Amino acid sequence: MKNRVLAAVIGAGTVVASLSACGGGEEEAGAAVDPGSCSVPITKTEAAIVSVWAWYPNAATVVENFNEGHDDVQVCLTNAGQGADEYARFQTAVSAGTGAPDVIMLETDTVPVFALQEALVDLTEYGAADVQGNFGEGAWKDVSSGDAVYGIPVDGGPMAMMYRTDVFEQYGITPPTTWDEYRAAGEKLKAEGGPLMGDLPANVPAPTVALMQQNGAEPWVYDSANPTELSIDLNGPESKEVLDYWAGLVEDGIVGTQDQFTTDYIAGAIAGDYATYISAAWAPGYLTGAGAGEGADAGNWAVAPLPQWDTANPVSVNWGGSVWSVTSQSQQKENAALVAKELYADEASLTDGWESQTIFPLNQSILTSQEFIDNETEFFSGQTANKDVYIPAAEAYEGSTYSPFGTTFYAQFTEEIAAINNGEKSGSQALDDLQAEMETYATQQGFTLK
Amino acid sequence: MATLHTAPRPDAPTAGPPAGQRRRKQGRGRSQGLIGWAFLAPFAVVFLVFLIAPLLYAFYLSLYTKGLATGERFAGLENYSRAFSDPSFLNGVWFVVRFSFIVIPAQMIVALAAALVLDSVTSRFSRFARLMIFIPYAIPAVIGAVIWGFLYSPSFGPLEQLFGDDAPFLLSPDNLFYGFTNVVTWQWAGYFMIILYAALQGIDPSVYEAAKIDGAGSWQIATRIKIPMISSALILVLVFSLIGTLQFFAEPQVLTPISNGAIGTDITPNVYAFNLAFRFAQFNYASAISFALGIVVFIGVYIFLFATRKRGGFLQ
Fold this sequence. Notes:
The complex is a heterodimer of chains A (450) and B (316). Chain A has 450 residues and is α/β, with parallel strands linked by helices.
């Protein structure tokens, strides 16, 4: 009997001990990194180890290149999930005050969300200026808020219009250069029983915001120097013109209302259900990865510049792209900043990135390299897409200010676009509602509206 | 014979052993008590650390408020008054309440019918059928939702192949309700069927013989004997599905990206709380939403159990 009591007590004790061991482990994660947990093995164990979260498809290659080229600092890579999954983890770590990596990959429009929570380090103190010259003005503005810089750009998404050459040929359409022509082409397709001209996805509002910016809208004005001041202008005439235009296309059955980044959308794109795909420079790589442009679908794609509202004053916009940010929880910010500046910045990694079509690099060393400029993109049947479309769009991009609560904004905008797609609201009405909701939310969160 | 009474309940706990024996056993009783606690300890520790402590912490969080642009401050019950006037939360609650009115009867009918059939048929096939009906429950809810997402797909699902371009999209705003009802019923009916089937197996067959002698047909046996006799299992199943439905989370969460915006971030209170915390960085308000949902569920279940106290036996 005694033995049994003892065993039970020991059993319970072991549970408690292992539980507390777990707790202890988590707390230390921010300070020291266990080299064994890295997805790319670290050989130079005496060097300082910087933990990095990233989900680039070629992240392992990139980290290997960095670790080979550096002796004092090594990168420990973790894939903490893609996009929203990683942000949820990072958000938890930020709220908990522990558990964040030293350096994190963020999409450009997410940077302000975490900068606002003081989760990211202003890199101007850590020599961000050293690498500023590597990037265009627009790319640099995207990661800046006032004088502060919260990330080092890696890749971008200058927008363009991908289209199906088979559909355009069959119905005798030339690539539209203005949005009026775009609509006319769509009407022609519809009248002749062709496929849809394009798509207005509810689940990804970012390109729609970019299209509003193309028409001169400036939805968010925000400077992290005055973090409680904010101005929101989502229902200005420029924005309304754009969204009413798209709502009209939806109403007339010219474009589809399918959510993107779904199997259904990809299947439709491959089957030629959409004559155009308003997308960014990373889209060919994304579609290739999803199985487009192969077999029967090969040789059907080409790309043209984004249609314009005013051809006399063309405007380039951006959708997506990512940066390296240093987290405030990092115990070694100097090393972390070094990683942010030099990881995925060497030529070998960048070349690997654009050749495998996983990124559209923003580093000028690539954008100005003859090899990149003259590259004949296989997905576009040998079209020199970089030279013709994407590089000019990237160079002309002037940068934008993203919402400091982008996740909430996108979620709300998703509901409004869904309402448009279901025929419940006009574009203007949706934007008026969105503006009101965002104002209420901002006030509730303690912002002063200007 | 209008109705049969439910199986007799065990009598009130029997009185303790006579006084003389009690004194003799006292020493041993204390060490047995210790052993009892020691055996309980592993569970108790896990229970305290992983259930009670997080609950208390969440409640503590819910009493504070932190705007994105402002610091944290004590808010008292402010978050709760905000929750109960927040249309996102109230619509979410209304959605799950409406949903439970549809989905619970659907689940119960399927489960009860399957259990009754399996109870009266005994062949090798019935064992196989029992397993097949149960299997959806063994598939994780997330995987199940993904599978249904493919089946509902407007471009390559079976509906598309049957109806062509006119195929209904079961995740559109108008059809969402039926789409969800189907998935949830598929997932849970098998589990409830097993509970009801086990209860049916526990009925003494001599009752059926007596009924047959009295001239009851098999339909009468089912409706007049079997169903009344397993009423407490039915109530149990009802409570399970009520709680599960009010906390509806996995399916909407998984199907959101393919619903073309029909499933919002606040479709059910649980989804709303998750998004508030992990996407919108509002842990305090999310905690309050979770607790507010807890209150609603508790009140709902209590009212239900009180109303059915005669049959359920939960509140006695």
